[in-house]
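Hi team,

As requested, here is the filled-out complex form for the iron/sulfur cluster run. I kept the field names the same as last time so the parser does not choke. Let me know if anything looks off before we queue the next batch.

— J.
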Amino acid sequence: MCYLALSEFQCTVQLAGCNFSCRGCFSPARVEVGRDVSVESIVERIPVGRRVVIAGGEPTLQVDELLELLFLLRGRRVILSTNGYFLSDRVVGGLSGSKVHVDLKAYTDSIHREYTGWSNLPVLEAIERLHRYSVDFEVETVLIPGVVDSPEIERVAEFLSSISRNISLRIIRYVPVNGFSRRPTEKELEKAVALAQKHLACVTTSAEVKSHPVRSVKIFFE
Ligand code: SF4
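And here is what came back:
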């Protein structure tokens, strides 16, 4: 467990550890930080009435604890944010009304392997699975100049449309860290959106959808 981030309208449960090694990652939760805590003690500290985002790191690495957390949070507004690699039938079957934000870093496997260190095949299968189980989900792909450019965004959109034209794709503008790549220009973002819209009915960007709280307080478990 890393920490809880509380804002006016949202509580983010930030779990530690990730199987991917994304070259542009800036999450402090990517590595094993914090300490083990019970699922009950997490739930006790989540204020009633706020949307709950379960993020990381990669939350599905701790599958038993994740399923217990989802069970204890049933009936509340929950978003699971995941890299999709371990979204098995068991996990998807336990989502019970939750929404999923699943990353598809790249459609071309060589680009995915180069960027994350892992194949994207399980992620592609997970997206098909989410659709088959009628889960409320959206796919997120980060536009990273020189790594994931607009032609690759179009390939992602083409893949999604092969499952359903109605799958939502959110294109995220990369925020540079440690000198890795740069922030895409408005023009580059517009081009990526236009290419994705040739295949999908719903394409949004990180500029339009601001789900991250502006101010939040972090609660660490002693
Ligand atoms: S999947 Fe997310 S947390 Fe994991 S390395 Fe990639 S960007 Fe970082």
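Two things worth flagging: The mean pLDDT is 92. The beta strands are 3-6, 10-14, 51-55, 78-82, 99-103, 136-143, 168-173, 203-205, 217-219.

Thanks,
J.
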